[in-house]
Amino acid sequence: MEKTYLRFVCVEVMERMARCDALLAKLATTAAHGNRHVLDVIQGLQARLAVLEGKLIEERELLSALLSDTGNAPAQDRQALMRLLSLSYQALCQITQVLTPLEASQMVSSRTNEGDIQPEIYFFLKDALPEAIQPEDSICTVVVGSEGKTAQAQIEETLCALQLQQVQFAWLSILQQDNPLAWVSLSEPALKGLAGQAIQKADKALASVLKQITQELEKDAGRAGLETATILQHALGLRIFGPAYYFQLTAQSLLSYESIEHGGERVAKRTGGQLSPEAFAIVENALFYGLNHFNVAHNQTVILHEAGERLLKEQNAKTTMLSQSLLADLFKASEKLIQERFAFNAKHLERAIQLKERLAEGILLSSASVFPMSEVAQAFDKAAKEQRGQGESEEAAEGSFPIYPLLSMTTEYPHTPREIINAGWLHKVERGGVWAFAALQEETSQGLGGQKLSAAAPQVAYQKLAGLFSAQDHLLAKSIETAELHRVLLCTPEPARA
Questions:
Q1: Concatenated DSSP letters of 63-104
Q2: Average pLDDT over every residue of 391-405
Q3: Tag placement on the chain: N or C end, fewer CB within 10 Å?
Q4: Upper half-sphere CA count for residue 315 (Cβ side, 13 Å)
Q5: What pLDDT is attached to residue 155?
Q6: Stretch 450-471: mean pLDDT
Q7: pTM of the complete model beyond 0.70
Q8: Is the pLDDT of residue 497 over 60?
Q9: Residue 255 to residues 3, 6, 233: CA-CA distances in angstroms?
């Protein structure tokens, strides 16, 4: 696999291992005061996870060459590493299949309101998918389950066998339930509904575009399994969520690509709605065009797209992309389906980029003033000079000084959950490789809070990584919660005075 993509997958797998380590430790602590049999099972899972973590740490030199900016790993070594990451991820998915019912069990669960959606998830989905754009019959249930698509595909098959296809659920990995960056995937049922509804009610222009897409997909056997509705679904997701949707889809697809590449036909069939490598290449190319069309492209999306192009060249892939004229028509149609006021636009991206810097410093992302403090200071100095230039006495100047307009410039306004989530993704994609490299090299790195990670003890290294990701999760979730409170206070009228 191409180096940039492989680095991306490496960070994703190491993150999931770290999260699994933290969850198992939490459950072991709870189970120690309860069922001994449950504790034995959890300890067995911890032992299996430690083996997986150790195997990755053993490849420290190869991983360091991959994760560093200057190092390079030979193609043969990259293939071996890809196989190791693939097998590690599949084994991790198997661990979570056992872990899911244990975590849901009340005897080992320390959570309250079991089954209730987290408030921050509700705020995020309310911002991204307000009632005005919700598809008809859009009620669905958030299901926390095992990592990967296998369990989800099994539930879908069961519902289909019971003729209960109308039952909709949004799948969230047990390892990602507290990770705000993963919540973008919860939009999948709504996006499918929006795409299906748009196809049914398509006007002449949209119907023509969809027909052309279908015809192009049918021309190439390499596009088998990729449907027109799927293309439209991802176009709408990009319109609503911006780069965060691109990153989320890339992470899911590359992890699936690893499993399909080394797990064979059987695994490929069990990945549910996951995109095949060929289908992902087509969708990724379309979404990158959409990022530029909506003016929300970022240098990190450019880097990933160029990595995809290099991968296709390495594999001598024959996959034919959708034409640019057709993609232009597709994203123009998506602009009509999702109005500007509901879309993630260039202004949102600009705020997300600014928030990314605050996230790196551990500062709450909930709100910011419209004017930077430098502009406020300039306005203050200008007003003071004008007062002195008018020759007023000091007392008169103090009485007429325009302090309230200047203070109004410092008023803060809440950021949207989508801006906060995009800031989190941009920060992670930019710094994730550094975090993983520091974990392997026992070095203090920027963004790691001055902590040292021990490569000699794999579980310690992953526990430190888990702490870093947990801190970021908390900061993002608290930012979303605080922004919602701020928004409510701004919209609440002042009480009448007697």
A1: HHHHHSSS----HHHHHHHHHHHHHHHHHHHHHHHHHHHHHH
A2: 58
A3: C
A4: 16
A5: 65
A6: 68
A7: yes
A8: no
A9: 15, 10, 20
The tokens for 472 are 């970021």
Predicted confidence (pLDDT) at residue 115 exceeds the cutoff of 50: no
Note whether 351 and 247 are within 8 A (CB): no
Quick one: which H or E segment has residue 172? Answer: strand 169-173
Residue 325 tokens read as: 């004229």
* Cα distance between residue 173 and residue 19, in whole Å: 11
Beta bridge partners of 414: 367
| Inter-axis angle of helices 204-219 and 324-337, nearest 10 | 140
Pairing of strands 141-145, 169-173: parallel
Token pair belonging to 285? 């190319």
Say which residue, 262 or 60, is predicted with more confidence.
60
Q: What is the CA radius of gyration of the chain?
A: 25
Measure the N-to-C terminal CA separation of the chain; round to a whole number of Å: 71
Residue identified by tokens 């004017």 is: 371
Degrees, nearest 5: CA angle 176-182-185: 120
* Residue 493 pLDDT greater than 70, yes or no: no
| Residues 420-447, mean pLDDT to the nearest whole number | 78
Crossing angle of helices 228-241 and 277-293, in 10° steps, is 40
Give long-range contacts, CB 8 A cutoff, 24+ apart: 447-453. 447/360, 449/362
Neighbours of 41 (CB within 10 A): 18
- Among 42-56, 103-117, 187-201, 433-447, name the one with the lowest average pLDDT: 103-117
Residue 376 and residue 410 in contact, taking contact as beta carbons nearer than 8 Å: yes
Q: What is the mean pLDDT of the chain?
A: 78
Contact 24, 32 (CB under 8 A): no
Q: Which residues pair with 369 in a beta bridge?
A: 412
For residue 344 the two structure tokens come to: 């993630």
pLDDT at 108 over 50: no
**C-alpha closest to that of 421 among 184, 134, 254:** 184
| 36: exposed, middle or buried (Cβ count in 10 Å: 0-12, 13-18, 19+) | exposed
pLDDT in tens, 232-252: 999 999 999 999 999 999 998
pLDDT top residue among 156 and 298: 298
Residues in the chain: 498
SS3 142: strand
State the SS3 of 326-395.
HHHHHHHHHHHHCCHHHCCCHHHHHHHHHHHHHHHCCCCCCEEECCCHHHHHHHHHHHHHHHHHCCCCHH
d(CA 369, CA 410): 6
Which long-range contacts does 40-46 make (Cβ < 8 Å, 24+ apart)? 41/98, 41/102, 42/102, 42/108, 45/95, 45/98, 45/99, 46/21
| Residue indicated by tokens 């450019």 | 302
